[in-house]
Amino acid sequence: MTSDSNPITVIVDGREERGVVSARKLLVHWLRDALDERGPKIGCDTGNCGACTVRCDGHLVKSCMVLAVQADGTEVETAAGLAAEDGTLNHLQSCFKRYHALQCGYCTSGMLMTATDFLESGEEVTDQSTRRALKGNICRCTGYENIVRAVRAAAGQDVPLPHGAVPTREGDDL
Q1: What is the pTM of this model?
Q2: Are 64 and 26 in contact (CB under 8 A)?
Q3: pLDDT digits over 86-130, tens only?
Q4: Phi, psi of 26 (to 5 degrees)
């Protein structure tokens, strides 16, 4: 090990992961390169787009703004950890699917992590509060309307399906 090699241990989506990283390695790069985690995306590398958003010890962070060594001893949650082990989508993910809240998918994992945090915050879920919660996540495809609908539906609100969507029962494959 060189003087720039730092051993780290991080719980990622419930699994203990160990690695050796340089002092300058960003968390997003360690997650993607060393662990093959594809949820956090590399977007802007400046903390502006939100594509790399994860939760670290229960707090939202832009993983492009956190050094991997700073995550040593923490628990990191990614969008991949939201689904069940068998791949079954959680309620929020199902709502994103049902309400067409994704197109290219690049922003989706960051949106899901931010929306998860927002829904767990206990704040009243309205169009305005949802948009405020998601403001640190940029989407270039959707116009946000269906993302807001999906988050509100996940909060148990009666939200109209987007134009052209086929109504299904909760849990149905779309």
Answers
A1: 0.91
A2: yes
A3: 999 999 999 999 999 988 999 999 999 999 999 999 999 999 999
A4: -80, 150
- Contact indicator for 112, 96 with CB cutoff of 8 Å: yes
Cα 163 from chain centroid?
26
Provide CB contacts within 8 A for 163, sequence distance 6+.
none
Give the pairing of strands 59-62 and 15-21: unpaired
Query: Where do we find the tokens 């909060």?
Result: 155
Q: Which two tokens stand for residue 21?
A: 């990283």
3-state secondary structure labels for all residues of the chain: CCCCCEEEEEEECCEEEEEEECCCCEHHHHHHHHCCCCCCCCCCCCCCCCCCEEEECCEEEECCCCEHHHHCCCEEECHHHHCCCCCCCCHHHHHHHHCCCCCCCCCHHHHHHHHHHHHHHCCCCCHHHHHHHCCCCCCCCCCCHHHHHHHHHHCCCCCCCCCCCCCCCCCCCC
> Can you tell me the distance from the alpha carbon of 153 to that of 171, in angstroms, rounded to the nearest whole number?
13
Taking residue 69's Cβ as centre, other Cβ atoms within 10 Å add up to: 16
Q: Which amino acid makes up residue 34? A: A
- Pairing outcome for strands 53-56 and 6-12: unpaired
